[in-house]
Write a structure and sequence with these properties.
The protein is of the alpha+beta class. The protein is built from 4 helices and 10 strands. The chain folds into 2 domains: about 30 residues; about 160 residues, Rieske [2Fe-2S] iron-sulphur domain (Rieske Iron-sulfur Protein, 3-layer Sandwich), CATH 2.102.10.10.
């Protein structure tokens, strides 16, 4: 009888010790697992755009958001620099944090011929419609929100309607001649999607 009581006490003590050790080790184990922000930062999509025609849009999903990739035409690029459009832009100099530093230019991209934008209206959250024809009276095509009637040019710059922020540009890299990688910055550049001012 005393032997089985002793064995029971040994077994109970060992079980309690193992439970205490597991409880003490759990914070370390949990710390080794990356959180959602770290996992999201590593989420990349590699896209081949060799078959994308001028003026054509491709829609992808990244972080559960629609990403618009458009091969802009020479006409679109020329119209985007016309004074009658530039004068109407809400953020012509891309001063608000809506894009990585390498896309803070008049075309809001790495390559002027290629637009990479998050397709979410910065005023109401709807998905804007892509318009290849000119907006009346003489503005280039671009995007129009079906919910609030905000207009964005082919660079995603807001110029009409209630939206005051340009469409966001996700972190991405361009690999010549026809590949882009969404979710990864250009070499030497740091930009996180969480730093975008308005989406």
């Amino acid at each position: 009888m005393p032997t089985s009581r002793r064995n029971f006490l040994y077994a109970t003590t060992a079980a309690m010790g193992a439970a205490g050790l597991a409880a003490a080790a759990w914070p370390l184990i949990d710390h080794l697992n990356p959180d959602a922000g770290v996992r999201a930062a590593g989420d990349v999509i590699d896209i081949d755009l060799a078959d994308l025609a001028p003026g054509e849009r491709r829609v992808l999903r990244w972080h559960n958001l629609p990403i618009f990739v458009v091969k802009r035409t020479a006409g679109m690029l020329a119209a985007m620099q016309e004074p009658q459009l530039v004068d109407r832009l809400r953020d012509a100099g891309s001063e608000k944090r809506q894009q990585p530093p390498y896309a803070a230019n008049w075309h809001r991209s790495i390559d002027p011929a290629l637009a990479v934008l998050v397709g979410v209206c910065t005023y109401c959250g709807c998905v804007p419609q892509y318009i290849t024809d000119a907006f009346p009276p003489d503005l280039p095509g671009g995007y129009e929100c079906p919910c609030c009637a905000s207009h964005f040019d082919p660079a995603g710059r807001a110029h009409a309607g209630p939206a005051q922020y340009n469409l966001p540009v996700p972190p991405y890299d361009a690999t010549p001649p026809s590949h882009i990688v969404i979710g990864r910055n250009r070499s030497g550049d740091l930009f996180t999607f969480q730093s975008i001012e308005r989406i």
